[in-house]
Each structure stands twice: as C-alpha cells, then as structure tokens.
Design brief:
single chain, 15% strand, Rossmann fold, 4-stranded parallel β-sheet, Transcription Regulator spoIIAA, alpha/beta
C-alpha cells in the first residue's frame, strides 16, 4: 500500500503513474510475506523507457519462477521526485510493494547504454544505499549489474559489487540464492566466492596501477580465473517466454509487444558491439515465435508486435513466421514490425506482409554513403541493392524509407559525406520515377563511438567540434525535396565515447558530474554538457585524451572480459580497417562458425 507520505510526494510530481505500480502482469506483493531472497531489478532510466525493456521483462519472470526468490522493479526517478525524496528523507520504493529499495537483499542494474551511468548514482542515492561499493557492510544490499554497457565494467566499478556478464537467465537465480545462503560469512569472503563463479566479474578482486592515461599494470586478488568469460544461455529456445509481460501503467516510448526471434548476428560489422557480444547466432523455431506472439497480444491487447533481433531477415523461417502472424493479426488491425532488416535479404514478400495493417515504412542501415565507407565497416551492400530495396518498398505501397549512417569513420572525407546526401536524392528521384511523388526519405546520422570488444576499439573518436563540422557540411549539401536529415547530438556522442572506454578512475568524474546536477544524460532536454566539462576538468580528465587512439598492445580496461571472440580476430579486422579493406561474406561466415 502507498503510505500517506508517499501520496503527498506523488501529488507534487509530474507523472505519478511512473511510481505507483499495480500493472497487469506484475507480482504485486508486500515484504511481510516475501520469499527468502528479495531482489529489485532496475533499468536506470525513466519508467517509460525501461518498463518495456526485454531484458528486464525476461529476468523478472526468470527470478519470480524460483520459489525462494521475490523479484520487484524500480526505475530512475525524474528530477521532481528525486528532489522530493531528498527533501523529505523518504527512500525510493519498488513498484510492487511500495517498500524501500534498501530493504531488499539485492539491487540489480541493466546497463543498456553508457549514458545511463549517471542514473545509477541517482538510484543509489535516492535509495539511501552507500554509493561506493567499498563502503557497504555485511548488512547492506548487494548491488550487481549486467547488460551491454557493462562489458567495460570499469567506469562504474566503484559502485558495483559484482557484474554478471552475458545471458544471465540460466545462472542468475541460483547465484543469488547461493550468495544469500552465505549471508553469515563476512562480505569479503562472499566476494571471494563470487570471483569463482562463471560469468561473474568482481571489481574488488582487481587492482590497477596507472602511468599517465594508460594502465601500467594490474593485480588479480580473486580465486577463480583472471579473465571472466561471458555467459551463453544453454538453450535460447527454452528461455522463459514472456507470454504475460508486465503492461506499463503509463504510455511508453515503444508501445508494442516484443518477441525475440534471433540472438547474435552473422555479419559482424566492425563498429557493432552488440554483434560481437552475442555470439553465437541462434534462432528460435517459427512455431515458438508465432505462439508467443499470439499469446502475448491476446493478453496485452496492444496494436503491434515487434519481432526483435539484430538482423530479422536472416532468420531462416522469417517469411513463414511473418506470414502466419500477419494472417492472424491483419483482420484485427494489429501490425507486425521487423526493426532490423538487411538490404540484401529484404524482398517483396516481407514488404507486403509487414505493411498489411499500416505503412510502417522501410528502415535500412547502409552505415556508409560511399562504397569505401561501407567497406571500412565491412557492410556488404551496394548502392544498387539499396535502390532495388526502394523499388520493392514502392511496389508494396510503402511511402517512406529511413536510412541509418555512421559519420566519423576512419578515412572519411567530404566525398563520403556528399555520397550520403546524393543517395537520399537518388532514392527520392527513383521513387518519383515509379510514380511515388510524395515518397519521403529520412537520413539519420550517428557519430562513430569506438566500442570495447570490437575491431574499432583502438580507434580515435572524432571530437565534438569535428562532428559538428561534418554535420554542418552535410546539412549544407542535403537539400533534396522530401529528404529529411536527422542526427545524433555530438555532445552526447562525445560523452558516450569518454565513458565507454574509460577506466576505473572515471568514477570520480561521474560523482563530480552528479554533484553538479547532471541527470538523465540520454535525454536532450536534460543533458548539461557544460557541467560535464567542468566535472572532467576538476577530476583531471582531458577529452582529447579520453577519445585518443589506443595502441593494440596496451592494457585495456575491459580486457579481463572474454566475449568469446579472440583478440587475434579483432586485431586482424582492425588491420583491415587501416587498409580500407572489407572482410568478404565467405570469410565472415567461416569466422562466425569458429566464434
């Protein structure tokens, strides 16, 4: 039950529905009748971003399927509630029980993006938990983390007791139960035990020495393997199915049901971290996908379902799958979305079926406007294939197309940027020749952020000023009718780059930025880059040094994490990047089988 004090707080905030819980599908219960092990899962962003997150939904069901575990949820409070909590001394509470987060045994963060690091501090402070892991005692909650932005654990290592890296659904429930069973032993002993567990990275077991901007040496104090190998679910097909998802209480950013159909990606574009940390490629049988989609929609009553993967059209049964779902859903005016399509596998069947209810448009990711930039990222598509996809989309009755590009790639010059603008105009002209005079093309540009565990991890990232100059050049030359240009904020890209390859010392900058008022950095209206520059300068960080190129032989902060992709493979791909050479599809398939 919501207390009178909580009610008074909720009357003062902008969207109280974010914090009251009571959603359909949630395990609403208090702590008086709780199971032995009490867990809170947190997606460290606002409710409307995190409530539909697939990882949170999956782990929520996995943990609550175990009799000894009670799992609830919390999300990052907006500024108004955070300030009210601080003023009154009330601790942040969970959605299901309305009890304080600090009264649970475990608090687990799903880190999807580096721009959520600052929110992690907000949640810890709002929950009245010690922010620094070393300051937690035997009776304090355990704080753990996972997710894509946890594959370089070091920037937030000071705040986290342990990381569970990889696909945790098989391992996490039993790990938490066994750790709770050891509650009578000192915390240091439990940390040592954790260091022996598969897929678990314990920051307290690693000591670093620094020389300037580099790591000079490291010392391992744990009992297990020094390198931590990420977890891979034993059977993706048998994973807990999200047939009864928690339905959000307020409108979310992506208001649709999600069904995962494929894990991993066979293509390994050199900039794409997620493709390197989700090997091997595994697909779910069409029968399972169809039954889950139907059951989920019948339960939720939503108007759309998204079939999630890194490359949906690579699923060997995709046409059969979407045909069966579409035949069931079209009469009900429910749409099917395929968010990740490849140019070379997109065809008329997929086009027609994916717009059977409404025109969702076609979204493709050429990444580079010129062929040489596509070679740099090892993206095996040609301009002819992109134009052919447009023709297929037009014949299917689609009226819009969205293209994703990356700028700031190695060797990029003005001719490569002009190729992006030229491609937009060519597509509009081609559509007009087919009689589609109102066909619209959206060009969306992101700025390359070289990520850990990719062949690009050693590259220099262009500065904010360089990114702005490139975008201004592109804006000046992108003047085609029915062509819209969008771009990623260069300030956000620079901050993401600084955080993504940072070492353990970055925690001081995060704390300084939080003290200055930095919050919700992934939201344009909240990002205060000036505060960040002040915090970085105060703590001795220089942005050009943070964005610098790395030597392939230096110690990297994340090299204690083994994704399963050999370092030799990443170095070979890095060398090809320097030579502006692509890896052939045949070579990629052989490498993919080996990985």
């Amino acid at each position: 039950m919501i207390s009178d004090e909580m009610s008074r707080l909720l009357f003062k905030v902008r969207k109280p529905g974010r914090y009251v819980g009571g959603e359909l599908g949630a395990l609403n219960s208090d702590l008086k009748h709780a199971a032995d092990v009490r867990v809170v899962l947190c997606y460290p962003d606002l409710y409307e971003v995190g409530a539909d997150n697939g990882g949170i939904q999956l782990l929520y069901q996995c943990l609550n399927h175990v009799p000894d575990i009670l799992c609830h949820r919390v999300f990052c409070p907006d500024l108004d509630l955070e300030q009210a909590l601080h003023a009154t001394g009330v601790g942040l509470w969970t959605l299901e029980s309305h009890e304080p987060v600090r009264d649970y045994h475990f608090l687990g963060f799903s880190l999807a993006t580096e721009l959520s690091y600052i929110n992690l501090i907000t949640v810890l402070k709002s929950s009245a938990l010690p922010v620094i892991a070393a300051n937690r005692g035997d009776a304090d909650s355990w704080v753990f983390a996972g997710g894509p932005a946890g594959y370089n654990p070091e920037p937030v290592a000071a705040f986290i007791d342990f990381f569970v890296l990889g696909e945790a659904e098989d391992v996490l429930p039993q790990l938490l139960v066994q750790l709770w069973q050891r509650r009578a032993t000192p915390r240091t002993e439990r940390l040592a035990w954790l260091s022996q567990q598969p897929g678990v990275y314990v920051p307290a077991c690693y000591q670093f020495e620094y020389q300037g901007v580099q790591i000079a040496a490291t010392r391992y104090l744990g009992r297990g393997q020094e390198r931590v190998t990420r977890l891979v679910a034993k059977s993706f097909q048998d994973a807990v199915k999200t047939l009864r998802p928690v339905l959000p209480a307020v409108e979310t950013v992506f208001d649709r049901d999600n069904v995962q159909i494929l894990r991993g990606c066979p293509h390994k574009c050199r900039f794409c971290q997620i493709s390197f940390i989700t090997t091997p490629v595994r697909e779910r049988p069409a029968d399972d996908v169809v039954s889950e989609a139907m059951a989920s929609l019948a339960y939720s009553g939503r108007e759309g379902v998204s079939l999630l993967s890194l490359s949906s059209s690579d699923h060997t049964q995709i046409e059969d799958m979407i045909g069966r779902i579409e035949s069931e859903l079209t009469p009900k005016q429910v749409s099917v979305t395929l968010p990740s399509l490849r140019v070379d596998t997109f065809n008329e069947t997929l086009a027609v079926k994916s717009r059977a209810v409404r025109d969702t448009g076609l979204t493709l990711a050429p990444e580079g406007g010129s062929q040489r930039m596509r070679d740099v990222v090892s993206k095996h598509i040609s301009e002819e294939q992109i134009l052919r996809s447009l023709q297929v989309a037009c014949r299917a009755g689609m009226t819009r197309m969205k293209l994703y590009f990356v700028i700031g790639l190695p060797g990029e010059d003005e001719s490569d940027l002009l190729a992006i603008a030229d491609l937009g105009r060519k597509l509009v002209d081609a559509a007009r020749e087919l009689g589609h005079n109102k066909f619209k093309v959206t060009i969306s540009c992101s700025i390359l952020v070289p990520k850990p565990h990719t062949p690009f991890q050693w590259l220099r990232q262009i500065s904010r000023e360089e990114a702005e100059a490139k975008l201004n050049f592109l804006k000046k030359n992108e003047k085609g009718r029915n062509v819209e240009l969008r771009w990623h904020d260069p300030q956000m890209a620079e901050l993401e780059g600084i955080l993504s390859r940072g070492d353990r010392r970055m925690a001081t900058a995060l704390l300084a930025a939080h003290d200055r008022g930095c919050r919700l950095d992934a939201w344009n209206e909240h990002l205060n880059y000036g505060f960040w520059l002040e915090a970085l300068a105060q703590t001795g960080f220089e942005t050009t040094q943070c964005l610098r190129a790395r030597d392939t032989e230096e110690i990297l902060p994340w090299q204690w994490v083994n994704t399963g992709v050999p370092l030799a493979y990443l170095k070979k791909e890095h060398e090809k990047t320097q030579q502006m050479l692509a890896t052939s599809e045949a070579e990629m398939q052989v490498a993919g089988q080996a990985l």
